[in-house]
Amino acid sequence: METTRREFLRNTGTLLLLTSSAALAWEAVAAGTPELVPNYRLDQHWWGMAIDIEKCIGCGNCVRACKTENNVPLEPLYFRTWVERYRVLAADLEHPEVDSPNGGFDGFPPHPASPGSKNFFVPKLCNHCAHSPCVQVCPVGATFESPDGVVLVDKTYCLGCRYCVQACPYGCRFIDPRTETVDKCSLCYHRITKGLATACCETCPTGARKLADLKEPKDPIHEFLRTHKVQVLKPQMATGSKMYYNGLDGSVR
Amino acid sequence: MHIPGVEGFMYPNEVELQWSILIVLYPFITGLVAGAFILASLERVFNVEAVRPTYRLALLTALAFLLVAPLPLQLHLGRPERSLEMFLTPHTTSAMAMFGFVYLWYLTAVLVLEIWLDYRRDIVLLARRSRGLMQHVYRAMALWSDNISDRALALDDKIGRFITIVGIPSAFLLHGYVGFIFGSVKANPWWSTPLMPVVFLFSAIVSGVALVMLVYMLTCRVRNAPIDMRCLDTIARYLLYAFIIDFGLEMLDLIHRIYEAGESFKSLDFMVHTRLYLPHIVIQILCGTLVPILLLAVVQLGRLEAPVRKRLYAIAGALTLIGIFAMRWNVVIGGQLFSKSFLGYTTYKLEFATREGLLPAIILMILPFGILWVLIRLLPPWEYRESA
Amino acid sequence: MRQFLKDGEHLVRMALLFGLGLLFFVALRAFFVPKGFGELGHFRAAAIADNAARPLMYAGREPCEVCHADVAESRQGSRHAAIACEACHGALAQHADDPARLKPTRPDARKLCVQCHRSEAAKPEKFPQVIPDQHAGTEPCTACHHPHHPEIK
Are A169 and B186 in contact (CB < 8 Å)? Predict the structure, then answer.
């Protein structure tokens, strides 16, 4: 009697171990290995973006295009990119009034006029940091910086621990409720590797957002950086952000 | 467009909290483990002989809670079936990944080994005495060895002492690491401070010592055995010392923040005075720290009768546990209630019967006591040093 | 040594148990770490290709101009020339692939135009913006402005 009970315990233990390991193995198999686009060399690109606050009109095209292109959940509040509207009373940089109704997805309901204030829009997205704190804290290597400078997520590997969401100073990450894994702006990696612009840059009517390849000598970003006073968001965090903002006011958070 | 529960402006992705009550439970539980172990090592390494009656109980308590510690994490993960990845491909820059190994190390090389070495003689005796399934269980626990000669036991004792010595920094590492997981997040000014691992560690010691004290009192009551007052008084004294250091550290952090009044100060200050007022000021500081310290100090300074002291210890111990839980709550939940834009706040919606709700949290807190009960039945911590 | 083995044989057994555990861990690792992990950094190298393998929803301007060269021409020199077709007409990669499969609907002028051109304090001052009711009453924008060449001649 005792022998069969011991055997039963042993078998159950083995079964439990095997089923959990099998689940892990299946993930690896199901992922497959799609090939990267031919003629695209990872070491020939270093991606960033030039964002011109002085041109942004808050139309929300970028927010809608991104959700369409990247299959982002439509219900609030999941955004790979969003637009914020600032109203700053001239002398009071420390207390801006900021709103972002549904991330700017449906545009912005007009503000009543307010004398003595400055108002502007700030598009936000993943900063694709060169020294990314989110990559630093990922326990398994499910988020990483590609050799061409894009911070990407490996959806088949992410555990959904949410540490990276906590570590991002810009609030650009979220958990996709459909897969319970992390999602964020991928700089439309599937587009830029084919020579296309990101969905947000493509649909921006005023050229406020422009994709930039810092390794491409002919890219207009170099002239842009030379001729404009640019800033990155939260420079004190030393994240190595590659989203360069022209016209970024001191009140922007 | 007003989002329910949100005041002011938050980055859109920030509104929903990422880490729930389960992530509050986790540092609470690992803290209890570290604290219980430190209490046990007081006797083993620092020869505080007075607390000997709680030595084995503290170790079993530590083990019961350590076994439960990964469960809230598993429940919280979006994809728990992938959790093995943390051991297979740990990212060495991630405190969370490295913690997995610290946990494994502590569980196996420290706690289980120490318990095994201390109990081994009794396990072998129990193996000889029992019949049927239990005999197999005890034999397996003894690794099918029957060797309890005097020399073997002397060897056990020497190695056991070495392990306890190694175990103390390991216990520090166990909970210090958890503090580092929060303290190293530069994006969050409520968390980001070098003091975080130290504050976590000392509050862990406080909570673990209080837990063992309460468990000791409870098990004596249940067994109708007399409480060793010398033991209890000594534990309470060490609890007070640890509390004073812990409170000192927390005050240092607070004063430093108020003095420097950095970028995030106004936003955090507002949060503490409004949304976090009850859990932080009332529960954590007042009821959970100042009152227990007062009660314990009164016992030290006064000359009270044993029954009165017992009652005060029980109240102080219970308040301590509640207070340290509140501290974990205030760190984890509090750190997510404000926006990283410092312009707004959100609300934590604690549900009841969902995967990360109150019910699983309650079950997870009760579970270690169930395991402890089994461990006590299996390896009685009271009848030690009996003859063969 | 022999005395140690006699007194400490239980320790040897425990050490063996640890050794077994370590071996098991190593075996697990060899079996389960995904192929290509660590090649380019601490991640699964194929994840880069995974990210590059999404389907396109927006085609970009060039495919549009293949079939709609007349529209492209009429837009040259207009103030809307720099705007991508899909900025107003929506994601049309599927249409570019197979025009019969997805027929784009004409955007509602009144809704679309005001999104950009309704007057709002936060818009750059130099950007053309109006208060729609004051500017056009109930007339649709297209009554006076053709979207592809909106200048009033």
Answer: yes
Give which of B182, B242, B179 is closest to B212, Cα–Cα: B242
- Angle between helical axes of B132-141 and A2-31 (0-180°, round to 10): 50
Closest to B136 measured CA to CA, from A117, C11, A9: A9
Task: For B199-228, give the DSSP string.
Answer: HHHHHHHHHHHHHHHHHHHHHHHHHT----
Q: State the burial class of residue A228 (Cβ atoms within 10 Å of its Cβ: 0-12, 13-18, 19+).
A: middle
Q: Is B113 on the interface with C (CB under 8 A)?
A: yes
Residue B305, helix vs strand vs coil: coil
CA distance A15 to B266: 55
Reduced to 3 states, what is the DSSP secondary structure of residue C137? coil
ipTM: 0.92
A196-A201-A207-A213 Cα dihedral, nearest 10 degrees: -60
Nearest CA in chain B to A109: B1
- Per the omega criterion (within 30 degrees of 0), is the bond before A211 cis? no
pLDDT of B238-287, one tens digit each?
999 999 999 999 999 999 999 999 889 999 999 999 999 999 999 999 99
How far apart CA B241 and CA B234 sit, in angstroms, is 11
Say yes or no: B19 contacts chain A, CB-CB below 8 A.
yes
Mean pLDDT of the residues in chain B: 93
B82 vs A27, A136, A168: nearest CB: A27
Closest by Cβ to C29, choosing from B88, B108, B151: B88
CB B171 within 8 A of CB B208: no
Q: B125 to chain C, minimum CA–CA distance in Å? A: 15
Among the partner residues B89, B92, B147, nearest to C9 by beta-carbon distance: B147
Report yes or no: B13 at the C interface, CB cutoff 8 Å: no
Hey, is the C-beta of A2 within 8 angstroms of any chain C C-beta? no
The three-class DSSP label of residue C105 is coil
Residues of B in Cβ contact (< 8 Å) with C21: 108
**pLDDT over 50 at A34, yes or no:** no
Cβ neighbours of B83 in C, within 8 Å: none
pTM of this structure: 0.90
- For the stretch A156-206, pLDDT in tens is 999 999 999 999 999 999 999 999 999 999 999 999 999 999 999 999 999
Structure tokens at A49: 């973006």
Cβ neighbours for C71, distance < 8 A, ≥ 6 positions apart: C64, C85, C148
Q: Does C136 touch chain A (CB under 8 A)?
A: no
List pLDDT tens digits, range B44-77. Answer: 888 888 989 999 999 999 999 999 999 999 999 9
**Subunits in contact with chain B (3 or more CB pairs closer than 8 Å):** A, C
